Amino acid sequence: MGEEALYNHLEICTFVYNGNTLAAINSIKEKADLLKKGTSLQIKKAYLYSLNISIYNYILLNEKVSLHICCHKNEQFIDKFIYSHDLLDIGEKIIFAYGHCSEYLIEKHKNKHVKNAIAYIHSHLAEPLTLDKVCDSININPSYLSDIFRKQVKCTFSQYILKQRISLAKKLLMDSQFTVNLIAEKCGFTNQSYFCTCFRKEVGMTPCCYRNKTNL
Question: Cα dist. 213→22, 189, 205, 207, 209 in Å?
């Protein structure tokens, strides 16, 4: 793989932008393997800086949202852990930082009511969430929010909540040692059985299989 191909992060950026963090991580694994042997620390660091700024610019150009805080935190993370963590581990952290950035998930939408609703959802994922409850909290008519939410977010209110709960669950399965039951609770599912059913339907595998696959 030549230098141009190595530093071409378009595929990874596209996956992150579309919320497919697992595909983005799989995409980075091939490059990480190539950089494992005989590569200087400076080159690995340059690659990670390039990945970080590429994702930042991709989102900025497509959504006109500047995730400068996330970008800066990623730079600090690279500087701090480049000596003790491998490239793939740091690359995964960068991808997940952007993929789960609530600022991006909120600010990419133009309607202030949709922004308020999404902000509330992300702050209360572990709690029971209904359309009426969210509307009461942000003082808006449920029918109006349901309609404008579907038009702007391209999915229903309940579908969005489920998607974000599964997204959070995937992050916790990768980055924590929490039991599946505790993760289900932290993500707002009523019980472990229902969580596993929803997770398998959305991801195509059980939570345990997902954890084992991503921790290989």
Answer: 10, 23, 10, 10, 6
Say how many C-beta atoms besides its own lie within 10 A of residue 1's C-beta: 10
How far apart CA 34 and CA 155 sit, in angstroms, is 39
DSSP line for 88-104: HHHHHHHHHHHHT-HHH
State the CB neighbour count (10 A cutoff) for residue 39: 12
Average pLDDT over residues 177-206: 94
* Whole-number Å distance between alpha carbons of 98 and 104: 8
| Residue 105: both structure tokens together | 């998930």
Instruction: Provide the whole-model pTM.
Output: 0.61
And the tokens for 47? 């690659």
* Higher per-residue confidence, 132 vs 87: 132
